[in-house]
């Protein structure tokens, strides 16, 4: 927990001031219409509990929890708002996701490119593959997305299918949102090596993946960065958890959304 932080739960299974993210998450997860904010100033937290409309989370310039409401235990349901636009709320309450308030800052590209952590997963019992993406902007806003599929042919590559889908989704997201370059941070080497030709694409799926990525290089600059798996790299672990949760919570490959239609998973 961030030093001195308190969590004020205004609507939830438990209400009042709580001193840890885990306690807060337990109080709001699965509670329809739950409302909470995190604060460094207990007086501000008390004012929020009392119903003050002018209280902002984490006053005094500290990091923001990035979440103020929960609905049905998942923030990934699509909603209507913003003048009739679809809103795709972030997955902040999915089981096991890190606390947004604990995330490291300054991990984006200061020159304005997009940083994307991607990962994949597979569940043999479900015959389902999934991906997770974490998008980090230069101003420390973070968007997250996951998805899954069960095409029998695609499922033959197990978690590798999710890895490739995650990378492709990230590149398409970057292009649609007007980025001229993207850095893909991954832990499965094929994400880069099939594209560069260091690995020979031996299946139809990996050939299609490599061909698509090379084609998109004509529209966006790509850089690849290998991250060692399971080494407690915050955003890589977040992408991993998103992929695992996508197996059961997101039974589709989602369309690519504009940032204006999304709510960030975390922001300063």
- Mean of residue pLDDT? 81
Order of helices and strands: EEHEHEEEEEEHHEHHEH
Span between N and C termini? 17 Å
The amount of helix comes to: 25-40%
| Parts with pLDDT < 50 across at least 5 consecutive residues | 59-93
Task: Summarize it.
It is built from 7 helices and 11 strands. By secondary structure, the protein is α+β, with helices and mostly antiparallel strands.
Write a structural description.
- α4 (159-176) runs parallel beside α6 (204-216).
- The chain has helices at residues 21-28, 42-49, 152-155, 159-176, 190-196, 204-216, 234-249; strands at 6-11, 16-18, 34-39, 69-70, 78-81, 85-88, 114-123, 128-136, 142-149, 181-186, 221-226.
- The protein is globular, with a radius of gyration of 19 Å.
- With 268 residues, the protein is of the alpha+beta class.
- It is built from seven helices and eleven strands.
- Mean pLDDT is 81; it is low at 59-93.
- It has a five-stranded mixed β-sheet.
Give structural attributes.
five-stranded mixed β-sheet
Write the layout of secondary structure elements.
Layout: E1 6-11, E2 16-18, H1 21-28, E3 34-39, H2 42-49, E4 69-70, E5 78-81, E6 85-88, E7 114-123, E8 128-136, E9 142-149, H3 152-155, H4 159-176, E10 181-186, H5 190-196, H6 204-216, E11 221-226, H7 234-249
Parallel strand pairs: 7-10, 10-11
Antiparallel strand pairs: 1-2, 1-3, 3-4, 5-6, 7-8, 8-9
């Amino acid at each position: 927990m961030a030093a001195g932080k308190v969590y004020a739960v205004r609507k939830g299974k438990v209400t009042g001031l709580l001193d840890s993210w885990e306690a807060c998450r337990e109080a709001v997860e699965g509670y329809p219409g739950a409302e909470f904010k995190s604060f460094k100033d207990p007086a501000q937290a008390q004012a929020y509990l009392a119903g003050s409309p002018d209280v902002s989370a984490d006053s005094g310039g500290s990091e923001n929890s990035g979440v103020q409401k929960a609905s049905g235990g998942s923030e990934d349901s699509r909603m209507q708002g913003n003048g009739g636009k679809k809103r795709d709320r972030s997955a902040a309450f999915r089981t096991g996701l890190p606390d947004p308030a604990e995330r490291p800052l300054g991990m984006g590209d200061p020159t304005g490119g997009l940083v994307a952590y991607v990962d994949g997963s597979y569940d043999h019992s479900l015959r389902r593959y999934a991906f997770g993406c974490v998008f980090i902007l230069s101003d420390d806003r973070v968007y997250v997305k996951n998805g899954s599929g069960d095409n029998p042919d695609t499922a033959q590559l197990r978690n590798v299918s999710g890895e490739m889908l995650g990378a492709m989704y990230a590149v398409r997201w970057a292009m649609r949102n007007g980025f001229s370059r993207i850095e893909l941070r991954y832990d499965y080497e094929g994400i880069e090596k099939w594209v560069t030709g260091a690995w020979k694409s031996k299946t139809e799926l990996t050939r299609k993946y490599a061909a698509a990525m090379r084609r998109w290089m004509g529209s966006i600059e790509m850089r690849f960065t290998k991250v060692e798996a399971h080494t407690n790299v915050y955003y890589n672990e977040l992408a991993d958890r998103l992929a695992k949760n996508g197996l059961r919570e997101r039974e589709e490959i989602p369309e690519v959304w504009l940032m204006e239609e999304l709510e960030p998973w975390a922001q300063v």
